[in-house]
Amino acid sequence: MPTANQEPQRPRGLIPTRGPWVRKLNAWRKRSPLNPYWIELSCLLRTAEALAPHARGRLLDVGVGERPYGALFARHVSRYVGLEYPPVADNLHPEIWDRLEEIRGVVDVFGDGQRLPFRDGSFGTLLSLEVLEHVPDPDRCLAEFARVLEPGGRLLISVPFAAPLHQLPFDFYRFTPRGIETLLQRNGFEVERIEPRGNFASAAGSTLSHYILRALGASGRHHDGSVTVSRWRAPLVLPLIALVQLFFGLAARFSRDETFCLGYGVVARKGAGASRSSSRSSGSRVRSQS
């Protein structure tokens, strides 16, 4: 059994359906510029790395997904709890309910971020990466975040600014720095830092890669907004996408223009008035877990 601050072993994907050597090859491709999301994922990883040292105590990861950054945060906290919203899991992986044993150690609790199944002040840190755009009422969600955080607890989030529609039908918002700051302050948080994720060059390269994929490489579209890459066009399209991403990835190293970027990473602290604000905003409580 893993200790409290060790990251448990987990499968490479919530529902692994490929053979071992195919999974290894696919894992390598996802980490390379051949992945159309390479710039996006690289920038998100850097954001997670910058947020991780601010974590402490018990951590709740709302929207844990496949727990891609668990190891980064687990070393800074006493316990890592991952929560996922059941309709999102079902939308992305319809067969997940028959294979729950395979995701043990990835998702600890299924629940709603707008009605968290935890007592007030249960956590020292709340982590939520690329989640608020998928919530119809961000204010209610942030009020719940404030409720389950202890006084002075830290909220670590990332939000998108430039991103295609994804995880449909659960895609509602994009955020500017002033917009996310206003939302946080309205719910009793004191913003400590807001850092852009990437810059103009990063966002341009990511957007162009998505366009090439969808215009030249896609053989079909899924209900959640994603596309299937044609196996016949992939050998031509993916190298082109790789070249585009390598060029714009290099350009991003020299760009200082952050007026257009992929998103933002935010560190905020629960203020003294957050508990009163969250009590008014979130209504009745679920107190089944501590």
Explain the overall architecture.
37% of the residues lie in helices and 19% in strands. The chain has helices spanning 20-30, 38-51, 70-74, 86-92, 138-148, 177-186, 200-217, 234-254, 274-282; strands at residues 58-62, 79-84, 109-110, 123-129, 149-160, 189-197, 218-221, 227-229, 263-270. α2 (38-51) packs antiparallel against α7 (200-217), α5 (138-148) packs across α9 and α7 runs antiparallel to α8. The protein is globular and about 55 Å long. The chain starts with 19 loop residues before the first helix and ends in an 8-residue tail after the last helix.
Q: Work out the number of β strands.
A: 9
Mean pLDDT over the full residue set: 85
**Termini gap:** 21 Å
Strand order of the largest sheet: 3-2-1-4-5-9-6
What is the C-alpha radius of gyration, as a whole number of Å? 19 Å
Q: What's the total helix number?
A: 9
Defining key terms:
37% helix, 290 residues, disordered C terminus, alpha/beta, globular
Structure in a nutshell:
It is built from 9 helices and 9 strands.
Task: Map the helices and strands.
Elements: H1 20-30, H2 38-51, E1 58-62, H3 70-74, E2 79-84, H4 86-92, E3 109-110, E4 123-129, H5 138-148, E5 149-160, H6 177-186, E6 189-197, H7 200-217, E7 218-221, E8 227-229, H8 234-254, E9 263-270, H9 274-282
Parallel strand pairs: 1-2, 1-4, 2-3, 4-5
Antiparallel strand pairs: 5-9, 6-9, 7-8
Helix pairs in contact: 2-7, 5-9, 7-8
